[in-house]
Amino acid sequence: MDALHPHIAFTVTLLVFAVLQVRRGTATDVLFLGGLMVVTLCGVISPQEALNGFANPAVLTIAALLIVAAALRSCGVLDRVGNRLLGGAENERGALLRLIPAVIASSAFTLNTALVAMLMPVVIDWCRRRNISPARLLMPLSYLAILGGVCTLIGTSTTLIVSGILRREGLALLSLFELGYVGLPVAVIGAAFVALAGPRLLPRRTDIVEELSETRRDYLVEMLVRPECPLVGQTVKQAGLRQLPGLFLIEIDRAGETITPVTPHDTLQADDRLVFTGLVHTIVDLEKIPGLVPAADMNYEFRPQRRTGRRLVEVVLSRTSPLIGTTAREGSFRRHYNAAVVAVHRNGERLSTKIGDVRFQPGDTLLLQTRQDFVAAYRNSRDFYLVSDVEGSEPRRDHKWPVAAAMALLLIAWLIATSFLPRSGIFGGFASTATAAITVAAAMIVTRCIRAADARSALDLQTLLTIAGALGLGAALDKSGAAVAIARSLVKLVGNHPYLLLAVLYLLTQVFTEMITNNAVAAMLVPIALRVAEAGGYDPRPFVIAITLAASLSFITPIGYQTNLMVMGPGGYRTPDYLRFGLPLAATTTITALLLIPRIWPFG
Q1: Nearest to 366 by CA among 328, 408, 400, 402
Q2: Which residue in 102, 225, 290, 451 has its CB near the most CB atoms, within 10 A?
Q3: What is the pLDDT of residue 310?
Q4: Predicted pLDDT at 367
Q5: Distance from CA of residue 215 to its chain's centroid?
Q6: What phi, psi does 156 have (nearest 5°)?
Q7: pTM score
Q8: Which H or E run contains 257?
Q9: Is 190 within 8 Å of 596 (Cβ atoms)?
């Protein structure tokens, strides 16, 4: 081995860390891959060793689970779960108390990044319906998912990365529930802190709907309650349809009888026509409720199997449009454009509630259900002044939800079974988490729970490439001898005190995680932890567990963990918000972990 290799590996890793702090906008994947190429070209590791990270089972497992999560979202499984979870909660505290056990239990068996991606729209929707700022619940959602993720091997991608490194080192892998011996107490104490201190530490931010109220564009939309709609038999209040931010229920038309004003205690019946005035995104939310369909234009496609080929589009009618003077009920959009009218907006004029009879005028803004290629086909048409897609209006595959739910349960059972199946013999192929996740993800595509194109879009390439690059840098630190040199220096500096070494490694990992990202830090520090144990003559298990926990429990900054970054925009959070709530939570979990780890995994 070249004497310069340890210095090259250490310097490159240090530079990657430094650049991430100095240039916050730098793409992490490009930076880690660049560092990986430098150590490879300098001969620190071979090209084969550099590329091993891309074939790492943990990376493949994470990629497949992202596809599974997208399929569950596309089929409406998550909305059903969310409605059952939060549907009965009347206030912020009630919602938080419902979220705590459900999110911790779910994130123990589902990647917490995927879980937050699935539940975030549900929480935001519930907040809008109750005039509660999403900032009051989204940060707790992220923190609870992080806490639940350390209860099992499959709760967070960090544990999968660590287990992969242990496999490479020839050490015993983490079993499914091993981390839970300390992870579960940490999660319980952390959840108690979230429940008790969260309401006092969380910010109160105005919802974006209210901030934009002065420039809002209200549409008039008439929705038909079909017999299979889950809202049938519920009161307006129970259905969450009364005085929604951005949406107002004006009247109910029932068999020719008009009910107005609508009270919270009016019960919804099959074939009711509900007349709303509201913003585009709230109409999109209404359209996603199974069995609730726009009634202005009966050409609207409501059958789930056929709706997957259609989406919502906004258009502004021009003076030369052939639709001027026609109505939605006359079916002119179907004849001309194979489209159906969902809602109508006419600036400065209160439209009749029978929007199917409204005759279109130049400048009217219409919400249409169209085929997928409508925007491309008519963007430059003289029939419209403006044509644009409605964000978030992609059709869901509600008819596939039983299939998607069944496969998700199968995946969870399979992932649990991988901890108990033998690694060789007839069941050897079933003992891999990567095989399980990829098989179920492929089955989701084959059964049309998600389109192949949407599955590709679900892959977070930046995260996956960052992990692969970090694994390569970790291997370079280890193979070059840099990890051994760092470990010996640490032991010499701290002294031969295992408790102090454990605390230093834990805090070092925690600080690096808050500055960079959890998976990258775990991939690079686990080899160092193994060499620290070797240099001091200790069992490596407590040090590996400490690195795993510290890299997984990131609360202080938005960049330390993916879920914290995911809720930052929708919650309107700023960096000081994470510091105010996350710092005491991190201190609580750190003290708990450091007290428990040596008791469960002795040093030798």
Answers
A1: 328
A2: 225
A3: 65
A4: 84
A5: 30
A6: -145, 150
A7: 0.66
A8: strand 257-259
A9: no
Q: Specify if 404 maps to a domain.
A: no
Tell me the CA distances in angstroms from 424 to 154, 281, 364, 420, 430, one per residue in order: 21, 52, 67, 12, 10
Residue type present at position 230: P
Distance CA 107, CA 116 (A): 9
Question: Which ranges of the chain have pLDDT less than 50?
Answer: 207-215
Q: Which residues contact 101 (CB under 8 A, 6 or more apart)?
A: none
| CATH number for position 277 | 3.30.70.1450
Q: Which of 367, 389, 411 is the last residue of a domain?
A: 389
Q: How far apart are CA 162 and CA 543, in angstroms?
A: 12
Domain count, the chain: 2
CA atoms within 13 A of residue 204's CA, in its CB half-sphere: 5
- At residue 515, the pLDDT reads 67
Structure confidence at residue 127 (pLDDT): 82
Q: How far apart (Å, rounded) are the C-alpha atoms in residues 405 and 250?
A: 36
Are residues 241 and 199 part of one domain? no
The reply to whether 89 and 229 lie within a common domain is: no
Structural domain containing residue 126: 5-205+457-600
pLDDT for the residue 207? 47
Which of these three, 341, 360, 389, is where a domain ends?
389
